[in-house]
Amino acid sequence: MNKIVYLCEDTPDGIFTAIYDAWEARLPDDVLSLRVERNYEMELFAQCRYVQTDMEKAVKVARSIKNKISHEAYYMIYYASLSYEQDKIDCIYRFLKMGFKCGADIVNMHSYDIVCRMFELKRNVGNEAHMFREIMRFHDSQERILISRIRPKNQVLSLVAEHFSDRFPEEHFVVLDEVHEMGLFHEKGKQWYLAPLERELLERIWQHRGYTEYENLWKTFFNTIAIEERRNYKCQRNMCSLRYRDYMVEFH
């Protein structure tokens, strides 16, 4: 039997829909593969099945995870679904097959490779989200909208959204993810939401930013607190690697 590949969009809802369809098909594990459609490299002698995102199916999968396994397992799976790793959906699927048999204990069964891999995916996504909560820099625009731009490996916008909406509830702000071409939008006094952005629109929004005196103050603060005799650029790169610095104003 030829290998069958389920291809879905790279979102939690798309991934949950693919898992639902794969589960319904009841295919053997040795012929089944689940991948995101974006950047997928075609394989010889593989049959591709394109999955259309279905919110009803996605909700059923999420509800089953919470009810039949645990909320902790759901959050682990949700974080893993935001990873940039190609094998994430296969890992989630195998983790769920074990989880529906073992129940809530699955998250503590560290002797199994699949559980360790899921923890690795979750930790990687969580660490990057935590990093961007700390180093994200906002620019003010003439329309009094705060604009920020990031270049993450993983899809961290939904994980940083609550942090900034809680701290800036009375501000209009936008966070642009140029890697995944997504935007986080928050309107004053309202709930945040995510929306896909074409590259041209993303660049147009970014052009609205202005250069304000607050950025000068931040640079002055950054340089003033530095102790010349204790400068250690190697340690600095370990604490804040170069890939995070593209839009950090203090390094410009």
Main attributes of the structure:
alpha/beta, 252 residues, elongated, 8 strands, 46% helix, 9 helices, three-stranded parallel beta sheet, single chain
Q: How would you describe what is shown here?
A:
With 252 residues, this protein is of the alpha/beta class. It is 46% helix and 15% strand. It is built from nine helices and eight strands. It has helices at 12-25, 55-68, 71-81, 88-102, 113-135, 157-167, 199-206, 213-224, 233-239; strands at residues 3-8, 32-36, 46-50, 139-140, 145-150, 172-177, 182-186, 193-196. It has a five-stranded mixed sheet with strand order 4-5-6-7-8, sandwiched between helices. The protein has a three-stranded parallel sheet with strand order 2-1-3. Helix 1 (12-25) links the parallel strand 1 and strand 2. Helix 2 packs across helix 3 (71-81), helix 3 (71-81) runs antiparallel to helix 4 (88-102) and helix 4 (88-102) crosses helix 5 (113-135). It is elongated, with a radius of gyration of 21 Å. The protein starts with a strand and ends in a 13-residue tail after the last helix.
